[in-house]
Structure to design on (1083 residues):
């Protein structure tokens, strides 16, 4: 039927079709072309719950538990799921201020990898009380979750440097791990925890759960098809003997220095003490950050792992190495004798010696620790006519020293191992000019002074070589993993460049040291101990007290090196400590309780009072003056 | 192709004779004349709507369709009531609609005004009566009351739409409920009355008014996006180019030149008034909504949240959808208002592209069919009422789906027949059933001719 205006219906048809087509085009775009919405929908409802495995336990060589785990509750946040929460109440429960709340978010937003749909650690560890309060009210704070993970706990407050500690990963670590770690994860930062991180940490599991808009769990995703269970880390048994580690640390109280003990045949580290140390329990819980700062600022550097990282002049114990090199080079026999008139004089240089009978053969020189004797030995080694130039002979000497693990990084698994200092030909060429130096120029090396720096671990390794009469196994801490006692890997055996036959006379000499020489205090009734004292001069103050030994003489079970800084003679502090530890290890008891008490009483700490510091700086200034005079 | 009078008469005669038997049987209820296509479309839509509501609020604890504690059960009840009302409307005498149009309009308007003073606030709006356990929104009934009133007025004896006075009264009839609804603080529902401009267009309002409306909308959007000064320079440049083009090239098409100048002047006013309204009249949440829509602000937590989640729901449905009760967005309540204003999300998520195609296609089909129906009316009252129905449904369809797919700002109005809500379902149903009743009467009119 035709009425005026009925043609206008076409306008209506046109509008309907146009709107319909625009809608359909938009729907095709939303539903077919742009597939980001599917992922967004998944992000909305899929909540990934990380299941943290428990970290491997650590036991000592006798199966004594040293490190175990505690459950820790961390507060996780997924920023874009926060909705309509009572911030004031939240802050009250957590014990933070609203400003602190805001600051934390600002901090999170600055983190690399920030995305509102990712989960971040808001509070690393909730106290048990906070956790209890939170658990009840978690539904009031959508976007926040509690994640259970494990933190370390230490049964004994010792061996901190060996065990190391775990802490939160940094962004760099996350990057390096190729995505295994995420923000807030813990991992081994030092010591064994770091060395065997990948075996100790186990494998994280994951569970996907569906959540509704208020983050209430609505069941598992696809019947758990994509879920995985966490795999616990492997338990590790270390070579450390908890008992002597404990005793060692007690004996080193109020002293600066190191103890390293090795089982010679296997290279297993029996104890490793760095003093002053710290209680490993400081590195767990909410206070770990503050404690770390405190330790870092301590002038005594308790975090510094001295046994593997601090070089000391070895002093007289180096004479043992000299005796072996001299024999190998054919310039020294057990019957070689030199006389000593209170020292060694070679024109420009004079090396003093303490009064003793003269002349001495090799065994006697080791027993008495005659400086002059070993200066002669060093001179014959370096000025050996076998070689055309001094530097050739020096390099030969150096090669021998290296074969004793000196001047190289020993293959221990721990991080931050220092190789020590063993001078190279280039150094002397630079200082004196090529061919312008000879044995007498560098004579202090003969008695373990001069440009020589050896870590306590290297000292212990040298004495282990003596115990083995010619070889060492890479010192190590890991004994085996898991119940099946699987060895972590084969530790390499290294032969020295000195032949087996030259060792006996030196060992005899060392035996004499303890029987009736400088180290008589180290003697243990019923056990034949071989040792050597050292009194290492150092430019910064009083001499370091050094002693190394092994026992028993035949079929040795323990090789030990002790360094006590600024403590004077090797026989005063280092030797008794070494002796006590050997006794403890070999007989499981110490009969000489009075000696333990004496050692514990000794306080050799530097004086940090104003008066002490003043005295210290005066001494340093004097030493500097002396040095400058020498140069002139 | 025009039919001759003779042909038309013959056609009528054939039609009448064909139906005469039925018409003379003196049956009060006759299925003859009812547009079954529309009735079936209506039934399909409310059923689909019910299915979606069931899914949107589904909890295993209330899985029974007849559980009247929850929305789907209530909606089922409303559908039954709507069908009952429809039955009563079919039984009624079609004469009562023109007769009581003014009275009905007056009563509904009074209710709409009364509700402002006696109602409790629901989501910032005062538009609900609370009677016992039921709430009821008079503005939903304002639409068909206004439609009837407008139809009655414009179909009146010796009313000419060209007359300025007529136009003013017509705008008054539309403007009153709009103003009242605005006072209820229900902007979305108030805007629905704008759709009556389409009816007026059909009844004689010139087409340029619509063009002007579209241009105004485009300019308004641009005014929000671009700084007023730059926009004016651009518009002036465009206007100059068009004028010069028509003046020199097409030899003085004066009408178009005047029209261009007119549009240019209106644009200037628009730009500044939009700027003023946006910055000084609108409320903060409205400003934010508009900014979010225009992409000037990204606020996925606040104003943009609904639309963002709605787009995720629809977008994640893909081609085939996730299946009934399988939509994660739907099931876990990520889209607020999902059973009411955002019901289209459920379609998109659970039925995918084919579902949304069906719904959009269904609405276009329904609207098309209603226009055809409107045009076949022999009296002006019926036709104007039919176009009112078309315009109202179209506006709801356009705004609601446009909003859920992120093309239009969030204006909270329901999707007819789909959205949960007794008042809106009953309102739309009555609107449609009255039209069906009026339409069916054309047969009787013919019968009258024969008598």
């Amino acid at each position: 039927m035709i009425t005026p205006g009925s043609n206008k219906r076409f306008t209506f048809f046109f509008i309907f079709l146009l709107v319909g087509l625009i809608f359909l085009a938009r729907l095709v775009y939303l539903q077919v072309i742009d597939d980001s919405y599917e992922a967004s929908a998944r992000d909305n409802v899929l909540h990934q719950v990380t299941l943290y495995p428990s970290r491997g336990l650590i036991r000592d060589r006798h199966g004594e538990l040293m490190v175990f785990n505690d459950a820790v509750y961390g507060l996780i946040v997924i920023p874009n799921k926060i909705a309509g929460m009572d911030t004031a109440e939240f802050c009250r429960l957590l014990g933070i201020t609203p400003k602190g709340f805001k600051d934390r978010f600002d901090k999170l937003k600055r983190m690399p990898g920030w995305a509102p749909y990712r989960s971040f650690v808001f509070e690393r560890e909730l106290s048990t009380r906070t956790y209890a309060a939170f658990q009840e009210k978690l539904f009031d704070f959508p976007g926040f979750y509690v994640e259970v993970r494990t933190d370390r706990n230490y049964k004994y407050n010792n061996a901190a440097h060996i065990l190391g500690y775990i802490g939160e990963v940094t962004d760099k670590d996350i990057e390096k791990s190729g995505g295994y770690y995420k923000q807030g994860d813990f991992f081994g930062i030092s010591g064994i925890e770091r060395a065997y991180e990948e075996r100790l940490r186990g494998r994280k599991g994951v569970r996907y759960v569906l959540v509704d808009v208020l983050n209430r769990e609505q069941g598992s995703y696809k019947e758990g098809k994509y879920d995985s269970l966490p795999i616990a880390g492997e338990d590790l048994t270390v070579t450390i003997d908890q008992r002597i580690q404990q005793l060692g640390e007690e004996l080193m109280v109020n002293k600066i220095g190191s103890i390293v003990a090795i089982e010679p045949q296997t290279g297993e580290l029996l104890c490793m003490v760095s003093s002053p140390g710290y209680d490993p329990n400081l590195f767990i819980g909410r206070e770990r950050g503050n404690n770390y700062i405190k330790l870092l600022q301590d002038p005594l550097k308790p975090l510094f792992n001295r046994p593997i990282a601090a070089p000391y002049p070895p002093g007289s114990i180096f004479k043992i190495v000299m005796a072996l090199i001299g024999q190998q080079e054919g310039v020294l026999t057990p019957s070689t004798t030199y006389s000593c008139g209170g020292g060694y004089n070679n024109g420009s240089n004079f090396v003093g010696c303490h009064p003793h009978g003269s002349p001495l053969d090799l065994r006697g020189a080791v027993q008495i620790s005659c400086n002059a004797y070993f200066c002669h030995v060093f001179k014959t080694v370096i000025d050996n006519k076998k070689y055309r130039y001094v530097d050739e002979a020096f390099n030969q000497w150096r090669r021998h020293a290296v074969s004793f693990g000196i001047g190289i990084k020993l293959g221990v698994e721990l991080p931050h191992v220092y190789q020590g200092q063993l001078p190279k030909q280039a150094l002397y060429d630079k200082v004196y000019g090529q061919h312008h130096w000879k044995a007498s120029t560098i004579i202090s090396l003969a008695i373990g002074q001069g440009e020589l720096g050896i870590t306590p671990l290297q000292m212990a390794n040298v004495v282990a070589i003596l115990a083995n009469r010619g070889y060492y196994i890479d010192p190590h801490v890991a004994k085996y993993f898991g119940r099946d006692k699987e060895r972590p890997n084969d530790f390499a055996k290294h032969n020295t460049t000195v032949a087996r036959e030259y060792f006996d006379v030196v060992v005899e000499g060392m035996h004499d040291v303890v029987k009736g020489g400088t180290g008589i205090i180290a003697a243990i009734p019923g056990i034949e101990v071989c040792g050597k004292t050292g009194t290492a001069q150092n430019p910064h103050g009083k001499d370091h007290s050094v002693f190394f030994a092994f026992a028993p003489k035949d079929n040795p079970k323990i090789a030990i090196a002790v360094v006590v800084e600024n403590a004077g003679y090797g026989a005063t502090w280092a030797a008794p400590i070494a002796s006590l530890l050997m006794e403890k290890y070999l007989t499981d008891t110490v009969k000489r309780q009075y000696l333990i008490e004496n050692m514990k009483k000794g306080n050799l700490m530097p004086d940090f009072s104003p008066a002490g510091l003043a005295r210290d700086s005066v001494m340093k200034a004097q030493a500097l003056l002396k040095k400058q005079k020498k140069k002139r | 192709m025009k039919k001759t009078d003779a042909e038309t008469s013959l056609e009528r005669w054939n039609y009448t004779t064909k139906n005469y038997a039925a018409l003379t049987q003196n049956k009060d209820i006759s299925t003859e004349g009812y547009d079954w296509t529309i009735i079936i479309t209506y039934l399909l839509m409310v059923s689909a709507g019910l299915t979606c509501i069931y899914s949107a609020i589904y909890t295993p604890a209330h899985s029974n369709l007849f559980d009247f504690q929850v929305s789907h059960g209530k909606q089922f009840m409303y559908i039954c009531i709507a069908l009952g009302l429809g039955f009563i409307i079919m039984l009624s005498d079609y004469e009562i609609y023109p007769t009581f149009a003014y009275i009905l309009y007056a009563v509904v308007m009074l209710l709409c005004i009364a509700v402002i003073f006696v109602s409790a606030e629901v989501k910032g709006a005062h538009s609900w009566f609370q009677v016992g356990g039921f709430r009821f929104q008079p503005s939903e009934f304002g639409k068909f009351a206004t439609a009837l009133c407008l139809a009655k007025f414009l179909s009146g004896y010796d009313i000419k739409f060209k007359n300025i006075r007529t136009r003013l009264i017509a705008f008054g009839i539309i403007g009153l409920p709009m103003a009242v609804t605005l006072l209820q603080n229900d902007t979305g529902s108030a805007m629905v009355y704008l759709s009556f401009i389409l009816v007026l267009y059909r009844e004689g309002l010139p087409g340029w008014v619509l063009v002007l409306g579209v241009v105004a909308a485009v300019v308004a959007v641009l005014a929000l996006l671009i700084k007023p000064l730059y926009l004016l320079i651009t518009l002036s440049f465009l206007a100059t180019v068009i004028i010069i083009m028509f003046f020199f090239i097409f030899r003085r098409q004066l009408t178009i030149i005047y029209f261009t100048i007119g549009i240019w002047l209106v644009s200037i006013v628009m730009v500044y008034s939009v700027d003023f309204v946006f910055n000084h009249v609108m409320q903060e949440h409205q400003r934010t909504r508009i900014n979010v829509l225009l992409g000037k602000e990204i606020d996925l937590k606040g104003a943009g949240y609904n639309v963002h989640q709605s787009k995720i729901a629809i977008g994640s449905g893909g081609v085939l959808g996730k299946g009934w009760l399988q939509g994660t967005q739907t099931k876990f309540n990520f889209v607020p208002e999902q059973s009411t204003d955002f019901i289209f999300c459920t379609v998109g998520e659970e039925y995918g592209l084919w579902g949304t195609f069906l719904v959009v296609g269904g609405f276009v089909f329904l609207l098309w069919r209603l226009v055809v129906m409107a045009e076949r009316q022999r009296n002006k009252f019926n036709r104007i009422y039919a176009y009112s129905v078309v315009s109202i449904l179209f506006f709801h369809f356009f705004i609601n789906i446009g909003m859920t797919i992120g093309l239009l700002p969030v204006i909270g109005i329901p999707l007819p027949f789909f959205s949960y809500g007794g008042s809106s379902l009953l309102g739309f149903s009555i609107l449609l059933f009255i039209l069906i009743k009026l339409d069916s009467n054309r047969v009787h009119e013919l019968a009258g001719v024969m008598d």
Q: What stands out?
A: Chain A is about 35% helix and 20% strand.
